# Entry
Amino acid sequence: MVPILERIPWDAMTFGEHDVASTTTVQYLSKPGGLLSWLNHKCITSNLIHTDTKTALGVRYQVLEGQHSRILVLGFLYEEARVSTWVQVESLQSSLHEPWFKKAMKKSFDAILVLAHMDLRDHQVYTLLGALRKEVGQEMPIQFITGHTHYRMSAQLDNASYTFEAGRFLDTLGFVSITPQNETSPEFRNKFLDIKVPVLAKLLDLDIPKLKTKSGQRLSDFIARTGQHMGLDEVVGCSPRVFTPIEEMQNGNSLWRLYKEEVLPREFPPLDVHDDKPKVIIQRTQAWGTFYKGNLTVNDIISVSPLNESFYWIASSVPGSTVKELQEKLNKDNVTFDVPAFLVVGKIEPEHDYHIYTVESDIPDVERAMRNTVPETNWITPKEVPVAVTSLWINFVQTEWPNCSTHWHIEDDEEELIGSGWTEKHERNVRGVVGMSVTVALVAIVLALLKLRSQRVTIELEDVEESGGLMLQELDSKSE
# Structure
């Protein structure tokens, strides 16, 4: 994906926590000649630093010069972000008192743009605004462009500042502008645009064919070639129904229930990876995408599980009663849409001991919860397990849903999925085989009858495909 990003003419950008959650990704971005080298001063990471050198991952700030004005650009990641151990998120209290901030405030500029990966009304937005106001006064226009919470919203913070968040997953083209009206109250304007060709054509009063440019077409062709090269269009299986992450855990359409009760038990490494003790897997329920009924491509699976994080063994021989206590601590007062904040996968019995595993980005949170729960004698230095989340999904789909006529599809009715059939796998498989046999017999009879009548039958299967994308913030340096 990096070569695609390198072909886009960014003016300024910053990182979200998912961009730097994996050590492998951070190493790849930071290598000589990598994306960070190519972006140079365009990647603004005011409080995201290398753990070892304490230098900014990108640059602390940048001044953009437009036709009529100069804009100081800052870029902040929210303090609580879970990131790779190779990078560190500085607290705002620390970052805003460093020499670079004072130096930036002495630059010549007409407005301030803050790229902030946080909710548009996060308390940290107000912290940043307060620190900036102390340096530049009450009249300087300050525009926040935020992200992280995935919705469309804008709000005025004071007479000369605005905050703005433009949707999620490349579903929105956000536009903002600042026009000086007088010394104390500049005019802020913003617009949310659906990223659809007809919408953009109508906005520009152009016919759709005239929207295409040579450079845009070259980029589109390059994206298509890259996708083919990466195998993103390869069909790996067929989903028997819609599975969504916002469904309640007891529902048959719950993606998290599918992951907890089917994917992890089937695909996680066998018990003899570290010894024969049973495993407990703890993982945060991040907002993944949706599987739609029909054929699934590699791209569809990545849309559901974009972070191919590795699992780590973090605790050894923990009593079941302690695991139960840890589960309650992690999910206390933190449930959304009846989905727990953390999945705890494994049959936990008080009299047994368990090894605990989690994914890389969840290690800090799980270890924090373990401090007053799990004795330190059970802690171990995290050890990577040779399996990652997206790979689990791909293996599961290829094995269980290789086509649209598996036992999952034959018996996939609402009543069974919501009932106890989910945990009675052996019985379910037997019913699936019986169902398949009956179906084959019926098809044979029908074909025989049709052959006698010399008729041809065409069965059309309609594939429903859904693909996801990556949204990055882009700043147009031209100002009004």
Remarks:
- Residues 413-480 have pLDDT under 50 and may be disordered.
